[in-house]
């Protein structure tokens, strides 16, 4: 099973001292967090994509390319690639280039984002969000698998005898996840193509994501990609840990109470009861995370959001030490012991997919 970190790249004031990091500091912090993730034995680092303040990762492939040069094992991914407002041709070429530079350690997550104004900034209409996601991904899927593409659709100019360059490494496109908070159409899309489905699993109750993942699993089997329990599922989550749970709650509370995304609303206690946010000891995080299997079945990737709400870099790196040393080793062992033999243990890697493609070509 893959464990890792995803970052939305928010620039948020630290409520304990009133200081807001510069954009440069936040970008460098994301890089430091990725390097730390590999150091402590995690498998994945994923960056969000935003084009508005207070976020900095407007060009994830640039950041991931830089991280690729400084790591050896880490899988580099996006937590959202905006399939609705990015040109599919540019996505095809950017991620194929990154794939070559990173020796295949690349996948990506398609999403529509959560910022409405981004649509007109890139010449699109938010009311076309779902049709854009469907059409653009259909084109991207072809661009990675066909050397020459003739195409005409509703939302971009036609293509005639077009070849995207570079071609995918070893002729194998990056593995794709489809992320959604609320749209069954995206779960259906992921199932249709046999791709992965990722539920960010942060702000909503478990029952909400159970419906989406359940639909994805059913439709994955319907389209003949395997049994429902073999579908490729990823989950997000949020944790904050200290040796003693009381210390964790006391330290995290001011960040929670003032965070732009959930501050000034439900209390920390209410939020942790109703969502997967876990604030406590490492053992509490282990116990809570193991319940995810009960709710969603066996799954292949678990990513945690840890660098948010103004938490200083030093604190985030301490969190990663705890995660890598005390939490993930136990989770790996426990999840593996429970997983049936026919269920994939991890998300598809480039090496495995390239080997399969070579075998099928013989």
From TrEMBL:
Its EC number is 1.-.-.-. Residues 1-294 form the Luciferase-like domain. It is an enzyme of class 1 (oxidoreductase). GO terms for molecular function: oxidoreductase activity. Keywords: Monooxygenase, Oxidoreductase. Pfam families: Bac_luciferase (PF00296). This is LLM class flavin-dependent oxidoreductase. It comes from Actinomadura sediminis. The lineage of its organism: Bacteria, Bacillati, Actinomycetota, Actinomycetes, Streptosporangiales.
């Amino acid at each position: 099973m893959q464990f890792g970190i995803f970052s939305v790249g928010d620039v948020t004031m630290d409520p304990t001292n009133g200081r807001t990091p510069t954009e440069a500091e936040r970008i460098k912090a994301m890089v430091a967090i990725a390097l730390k993730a590999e150091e402590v034995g995690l498998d994945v680092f994923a960056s969000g994509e935003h084009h508005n303040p207070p976020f900095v990762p407007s060009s994830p492939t640039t950041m991931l390319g830089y991280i690729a040069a400084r790591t050896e094992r880490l899988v580099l991914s996006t937590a959202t690639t905006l399939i609705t407002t990015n040109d599919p041709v540019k996505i095809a070429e950017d991620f194929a280039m990154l794939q070559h530079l990173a020796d295949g350690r690349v996948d990506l997550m398609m999403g529509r984002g959560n910022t409405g104004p981004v649509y007109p900034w890139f010449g699109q209409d938010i009311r076309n969000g779902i049709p854009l996601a469907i059409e653009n991904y259909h084109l991207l899927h072809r661009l990675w698998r066909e050397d020459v593409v003739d195409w005409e659709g509703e939302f971009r100019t036609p293509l005639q005898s077009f070849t995207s360059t570079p071609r995918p490494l070893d002729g194998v496109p990056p593995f794709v996840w489809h992320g959604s908070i609320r749209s069954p159409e995206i779960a259906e899309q992921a199932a249709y193509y046999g791709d992965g489905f990722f539920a960010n699993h942060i702000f909503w109750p478990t029952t909400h994501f159970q419906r989406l993942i359940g639909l994805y699993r059913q439709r994955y089997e319907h389209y003949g990609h395997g049994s429902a329990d073999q579908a490729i599922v990823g989950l997000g989550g949020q944790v904050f840990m200290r040796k003693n749970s009381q210390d964790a709650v006391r330290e995290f509370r001011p960040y929670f109470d003032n965070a732009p995304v959930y501050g000034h609303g439900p209390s920390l206690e209410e939020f942790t009861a109703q969502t997967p946010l876990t604030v406590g000891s490492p053992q509490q995080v282990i116990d809570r995370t193991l319940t995810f299997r009960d709710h969603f079945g066996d799954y292949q990737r678990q990513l945690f959001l840890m660098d948010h709400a103004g938490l200083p870099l030093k604190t985030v790196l301490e969190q990663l030490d705890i995660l890598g040393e005390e939490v993930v080793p136990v989770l790996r062992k426990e999840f593996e012991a429970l997983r049936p033999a026919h269920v994939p243990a991890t998300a598809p890697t480039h090496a495995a997919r390239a080997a399969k493609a070579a075998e099928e070509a013989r």
